[in-house]
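Is this the right way to post structure tokens for a design question? Let me know if I should format differently. Anyway, here goes:
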């Protein structure tokens, strides 16, 4: 065992403590461990984004459209005149008849020139109407335009060819008392009132057709004056005859030419005691110079019913019946009206 001096040991320890630390060792340690890095600042936290709830919506499917209804089937329209073929003279009515399907029809009209006439269902079960040819219509080709209006609101049209034949109106010269050729001044007011009364009836025809089948002559006798005849009284042209004159004895029966309603019973200055019967659809007949009326205004009459008696009231030179007809505002020849043969439902000429 090595024993040393105690003082000597203390000196060795003291010397070790006071000796300086080698610089190269410090440098080596510094390089080995590195310089402490500067702590990076953390970025400031962004505010939290709001939470948006997304609700997914689904658009409803568009409603399915119904299938369009089929177009209604168009009926067939045709013309009938008092003579063969679709032809007529000025002042004559032309019958318009329908055939084929009519159950979808709301209304039908027939236009000839500036005149529009209705085509209507009637008591005979047929759709019939009358298109009048103006009494001054020029001869040649014409067209009757048909307009169909259906229950669903749609419309279709058709055009029917018509030949207008030439017509010459006769003239008659009459020598009468001056008061028969010229209206006295004190009667002018009455004449104007008479015209207004007739015009009020023509302006409001019955919208429903009551006539059916053929029209008939209202009395028996000789036709002494024809439609459209130019009247020359005492050398002056005074009028054009608006009807036909049938010479018959006073008191002879006068019958309704077809079914209808009595619209006017009036003692007119020129026409004398007069009846007007409305047959519906713009068709009227009138009966003048009666000695007696056997019906009242508003009364419904049947074809062939006695409505009055032949007379010579008003401006007349002898007993006779002045009988006339109007169709959709036009004066027409009664003989041509009687000559029309309405077709049965669905028939063609």
């Amino acid at each position: 065992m090595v024993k040393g001096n105690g003082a000597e040991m203390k000196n060795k320890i003291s010397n070790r403590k006071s000796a300086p630390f080698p610089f190269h060792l410090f440098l080596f340690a510094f390089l080995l461990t590195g310089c402490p890095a500067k702590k990076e600042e953390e970025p400031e936290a962004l505010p939290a984004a709001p939470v948006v709830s997304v609700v997914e919506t689904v658009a409803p499917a568009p409603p399915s459209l119904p299938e369009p209804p089929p177009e209604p089937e168009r009926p067939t329209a045709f013309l009938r005149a008092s003579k063969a073929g679709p032809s007529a003279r000025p002042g004559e009515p032309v019958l318009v008849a329908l055939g084929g399907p009519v159950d979808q029809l709301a209304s039908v009209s027939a236009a000839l020139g500036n005149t529009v006439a209705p085509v209507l269902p009637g008591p005979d079960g047929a759709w019939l109407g009358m298109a009048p040819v103006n009494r001054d219509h020029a001869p040649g080709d014409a067209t009757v335009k048909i307009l169909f209006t259906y229950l669903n609101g749609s419309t279709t049209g058709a055009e029917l060819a018509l030949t207008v034949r030439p017509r010459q109106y006769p003239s008659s010269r009459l020598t009468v008392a001056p008061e028969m050729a010229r209206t006295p001044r004190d009667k002018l007011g009455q004449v104007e009132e008479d015209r207004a009364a007739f015009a009020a009836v023509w302006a409001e025809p019955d919208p429903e057709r009551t006539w059916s089948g053929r029209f008939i002559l209202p009395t028996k006798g000789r036709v002494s004056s024809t439609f459209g005849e130019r009247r020359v009284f005492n050398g002056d042209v005074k009028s054009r005859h608006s009807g036909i004159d049938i010479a018959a004895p006073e008191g002879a029966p006068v019958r309704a030419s077809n079914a209808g309603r009595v619209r006017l019973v009036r003692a007119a200055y020129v026409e004398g005691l007069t009846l007007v019967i409305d047959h519906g659809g713009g068709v009227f007949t009138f009966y003048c110079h009666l000695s007696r009326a056997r019906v009242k205004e508003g009364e419904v009459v049947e074809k062939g019913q006695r409505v009055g008696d032949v007379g010579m009231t008003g401006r007349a030179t002898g007993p006779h019946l002045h009988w006339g007809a109007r169709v959709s505002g036009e004066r027409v020849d009664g003989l041509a009206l009687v000559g029309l043969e309405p077709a049965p439902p669905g028939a063609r000429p």
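Format looks fine. Someone answered above. Worth noting: The two ends are 165 Å apart (CA to CA). Residues 188-202 form the longest helix (15 residues).
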